[in-house]
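Lecture notes, structural biology module. Today: joint structure prediction for complexes of two components.
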Amino acid sequence: MGKLFLEHPGGRRLYACASCMTVLTNKRSLVSTTFHGMSGSAYLFNSVVNVLRGDSRTTDMRTGRHIVRDVYCKRCQKYVGWTYEYAMSADQRYKEGMYVLECFYIMQLQSAVKD
Amino acid sequence: MHTNGSSENSKSETNGSTASDVENAEHFQSNNLNNKVTNLNGHDSNGVGSHGGRVFIPPHQKDTVRLIGQHLLELGLQKTVDQLVEEGGSMLEHPLASQLRKSILTGEWESAMTVFSELCGPNDVGVTEMKYKILEQKYLELLEKGERMKALICLQEEITPLQHCPSKLHLLPSYLMCSSPSDLRARSKWTGANGASRQRLIHKIQEFLPSSVMLPPKRLEVLLKQALLLQAKNCVYHNSDFVPHISNSSLLEDHNCTRDSFPTETKQILEHCDEVNHCTWSNNGLYLATGALDGSLYIWKYNPQRYQLVEDKLITVTFNVGYISWSPDDTMICVCGVEKCPEAVVYTVAVSGNSAVEKCRISQSTDDVLTCCAWSPDSRFIYTGGQQGQFYKYEVNSSAVYNWEGVRLHSVATLRDNKTVLAADSHKRVRSYNFEDNTDQTIYEDENQIMNMSLSSDEKYCLLTLSKQGLVLVDIASGTTVRKYFGLHQSDYQINSCFGGANEQFILSGSEDNLVYIFKRDSGVPILKLPGHTRLVSCVSWNPVYTDCFVSGSDDTSVRLWGPRISSEESESIVGTQV
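The predicted structure, tokenised, for the full assembly:
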């Protein structure tokens, strides 16, 4: 299906889709490692590339009610995590626009090239 | 003869007509001229008004009549013009202006000077310069005739007192030493009395005097030429070097190229076995290279008369073909892959037989990603790179590699100066890199990722395909956006776009809605959306030499050759019958 346009987030320590190794984000964008998803622990990133967003849905989380969208790898279309669209409680608002990638679906890569 | 009294008379007689003339004259600083201008009408009403057959011409039509009169006069229809002046009651130009023209053309300089002084006051800006020009002509003509004494007197008594531009004045005496008229003409860069010099002097005076006094030369023809050029500029399907001119086009209807002569029709469909990722014409326009996802790469030979491509070579590349670039001398091609392809291959295609010879392979490390490439203008080097951070300058013959570190390339192009390389990188910039002195600078920055970049042949502009933002034309010198082209669908896939057509007046692009988009370079709205492909159109290429055709490649595994509905010879014959 065409020549897919994939971006590169730059940086040495990268996080990629576990199934197709498409680079999604880097260590610099990592905000927190204390999140949890369906599959176990998950990381919060402030920017992620090469993902598609799904439909929005409202979920009740430990930290309150949120509107989120699932995100999928642009290349293999596999589920990798979700992004916060809207946080109902004010103290959770900092997460809006950020991404949570589940550790089970991503892998760490070491790039040889430095930026 | 020209008193204020008579002009006042004329004002009252030719109701309103003076108003526009005075308006004209307002642009001119001279009060003196104001009188003269109004006198132009005063003359008419006094002289011609006595004839019975005079027709009232509304003031706004007077200029038109003057233009027609001047044109007829240039054609030699003197009697008709006399009749026109008599009937219409307005002179073509001020009688003194006619006299001035006549004096200059016959070389009667005394009379020319008197008339000129009468036409404008002594204190007008630029009058001295004009007088100087007339006298300079007189001086040179005297010298040409060998009358050095008279020339000297003219220089001393007439030119020097003007005190115009001493630097020019110093030159004049030196011409006295010229040995022959031809020497004089050579040294003063002057065409001689029998050359065009007198006419040129008249043109200069015409530029100086307001057009209400003396008409600019060939005014009607100038206007018609302007109209034709504007028509050609506004002509949507104008895809040729043809510049309309009075001698080659009809004035009776607007210049308009039909859609039939524009490449809008599929002339041929070439089949690949997998999605076509890239297609590109050779620099001489006679070969087309198309590459597909399955690694097959065809070289087609083009027959411009029959709009037909014939298979010339089939190359099986070991990776998915993502990008092809012809060497400037058209003997080699460099092929890059897609996404994580770690190598690029160079093939020699200028060989007989139905396959090509692998010349070299740019393969440094399995971690490399090489997805785009460009040749240096001398065909010695290849610049290639990709998102992983490689940016190689590779010498084809020696396999020597130089790496510019820290650049993640999306697209690359070379300039003809043989050292500058333009590259679009992952930081949404276009930067220029000079591999000779290792300098680099940012040319353009955008808010969106740049997927594709192509350079206009004059190297002044580059066309960028931006992720989710369509096409942008960027001026390289100033690094600013010239124009955006919108309408095409483009989001996640790398769509290729290019300049094309005669004088590169068009912009061609693929699209995700299965159409081929064509824009006129100076307008953001597409002029054509060509249907035909059944899936995403990923690549396009306009033939650089035979500008009446282009190709498009698509995910539906086909390459389409587009040409005009009627061939160029046929359309010429149609134009011929129209004229």
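Point to remember: The CA atoms of residues 92 and 295 of chain B lie 75 Å apart.
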